[in-house]
Specification:
FAD; eight-stranded mixed β-sheet; 18 strands; 29% helix; D-Amino Acid Oxidase, Chain A, domain 2; 3 domains; ten-stranded mixed β-sheet; alpha+beta
Amino acid sequence: MTEPVDVLVIGGGINGTGIALDAAGRGLSVTLCDMHDLASATSSASSKLIHGGLRYLEQLEFRLVHEALAEREILLQAAPHIIWPLRFRLPHQPQLRPAWMIRLGLWLYDHLARRDRLPGSESLRLNDHGPLQSRFTRAFEYSDAWVDDARLVVLCALAAKERGAVILPRFRCTRASRERGLWKVQLEHKDGGIQTRWARTLVNATGPWASSLFDTVLPAAAPASLRLVKGSHVVVPRLHGGNEAYILQHRDGRIVFVLPYEQDYSLIGTTDVDYHGEPAKAGASAEEVDYLCAVVNAHFRRQISPAEVVYRYAGVRPLMAEGHGRAQRASRDYRLWLNTSTGQAPLLSVFGGKITTFRALAEDAVNRLTRYLPHASGPWTRQLVLPGGDFGTQAGLAAELAEEYPWLPEPLARRYVRSYGTRCRRFLQEAGTLENMGEHLGAGLYAAELEYLMQEEWARSADDVLWRRSKLGLRLTPEQRQQVKEYMATTLNVSRVPR
């Protein structure tokens, strides 16, 4: 612990784990800490999309859209188990946006960056048999991609660990100071105990806490202010049977996504509300739930009410505080600030950003740090394959699993493919039979999978497993969730599970 590392990253969200992965892959020694679980804040509360941001074209953010579309191609290749193509339908409402404007926007969306894996946009005629109300007779369709956001963070952390990084969830950084040309960093575990780590460079990737960290931990004034914007989502029973998503234009200028979610549900979001509280305590308000239901009811035949919401969540986006316009028009771009002077250890702070561009942000961040770490190798993550992503198609891998493990139920194999890719073999090979998977805790969650998550993916609580490593919390009863909690508490006392 007294040997200095090259890079110490504070923050275990998508930007922090992305930077840790990029740096570790360049031969740098890396430590990452987070005060809670990995992806416990904004990075697990997104709209679950890898997308260019069609609406950002109206805000003339062509560079951001170009970069995001280029990253979409890279990430589809990097993680085919948790990222896959998704077609979007945009019902046309001529009183909001004329058809020529939408066609122009979609043409730009198709051509602003190279597109090899996704089909282009097209115009559709709607009939009375679809899920939309009969007043909608025309729609436009285009491509983007789905992502399991929290699993993307965990996979980046796993990939960083495979390259030598030390990953420390549940370690809060309580103090950082410059001493003898290094950073001296104090870390406190949530269960007590303090460690001191030394680092040549320090990265502040704490998302919505990036500015406030300067008030509590870092010995400098914050170089920028953040505009915290809350985005809320709700989950309801499936609204339509197709695999397509819908992007709904509301009369207030906002757009709302309706996304197929976990086979039996629809995910609806998001809102844009300025937020001034503690980011960890953000929740979807009754007003936001009413708003999302109202937007859906203005478009779909099937009407929904707040009583049908089976789950709701909210995340706080750390956006650049530029101007005082509407929250929905605040830029989703990012900025990096490097704080250093002669003889002082560098501090790099990340402000803003979006999940789609995390890899490019990480590459940019590490490029800046390598000025002070000349032994680092060059950029490498454009050819990245995340753990478990070394296969062709989800259907092909599912067929391989069916042949290797004929005892494995097909729905379970399909979920394992979408969650773990080829890494599911780590607990399937050891089991050999369904009975040997151990205790069944409900909804297809067996002890073998749960123990894998605890041993290799840093899971320590029922929420870590049921809402971040998986979404099985949607399907388990309160009694079953308590059973998972008790099983984990017992297993954590077994020495083979690292604490």
